[in-house]
Amino acid sequence: MSERLAVIIVSWNVRDLLHACLASLRAAFGDLSAQVIVVDSASTDGTPDHVRAAFPWVELVACHENVGYVRGNNLALRRVLDQGTVEFVWLLNPDTVVHPGAPQALLRFMRDNPRCGLCGPKLVNPDGSLQHSAFALPGLIQLLLETQRPLWRFRDTWLDGRYPPARYAGVPFRVGHPLGAAMFARATAIRQVGLLDEGFEMYSEEIDWAVRMQRAGWECWCVPQAVVTHHGGASSKQVSERTERLKWQSRQRYYRKHYSPLKRWLALQLVPRRYRA
């Protein structure tokens, strides 16, 4: 089985997790051929040398500065899209482990559903428990549930944009957006709507991409038959305060781009004061 597939992984100081990710990819590919690109954001833990030695089949882009998640993905996206032969692109976090059959299941779904521009697998935690892999597009209710302590009991429910766990045990289903840890995109859709918005250094970029695709007529799905383990936050935890600030800055950019003036103003009142742009 040969497909014109490119896998892009942006990495920063997570050498051991990246090793496990690439090893799992090699095992999961089977007879599937794919182009794999690792963009390393100036890691100081020996990642570039390790990738060159242990995974010579990987195309390594070793940056001299930390370019961030979005810019790093766009660097590789431009490279593969300029080739003109890639049909599908899988943006994969380095703290993931790909289960056998996952790439094939995602490719099969994309071939069978030509209006799908963006999809994602079922994600599980390292202990095997379910990790929410897709969400409804965020509105004011989700923001209320996150910022208002009396409402915290409703978090991780459908009110908070979550889909019922039973959905992940069944057939593929339409979603607002997949989690950015393992986004599988159609190259035609990317060429139509553009690359990731580099105004989002990290966070909310996948939501923005999904909105842009859906406004252009593409669909977003979750494919539970494809399974990926996701550790979560391995790079961002290294700079937690900056990460929290980036999260809120990105959300405010999303509100400015996609909310009406009134809804945008209401959302801003709910943003913690110290993070308001």
The proportion of residues in beta strands is 15-25%
As a percent range, the share of helical residues equals: 25-40%
Unreliable parts: none
Mean pLDDT: 92
Index terms:
single chain, 277 residues, alpha/beta, Spore Coat Polysaccharide Biosynthesis Protein SpsA, Chain A, 10-stranded mixed beta sheet, two-stranded antiparallel ribbon, 12 strands
What does this structure look like?
The chain is an alpha/beta fold. It has one domain (2-137, 165-232): Spore Coat Polysaccharide Biosynthesis Protein SpsA, Chain A. Helices cover 38% and strands 24% of the residues. The chain contains 9 helices and 12 strands. The strands form 2 sheets. Strands 1, 2, 3, 4, 5, 6, 7, 9, 11 and 12 form a 10-stranded mixed β-sheet that branches. A two-stranded antiparallel ribbon has the order 8-10. Strand 1, helix 1 and strand 2 (33-41) form a beta-alpha-beta unit. Helix 8 runs antiparallel to helix 9. The radius of gyration is 18 Å and the shape is globular.
Quick description:
The chain contains nine helices and twelve strands. It is of the alpha/beta class and 277 residues long.
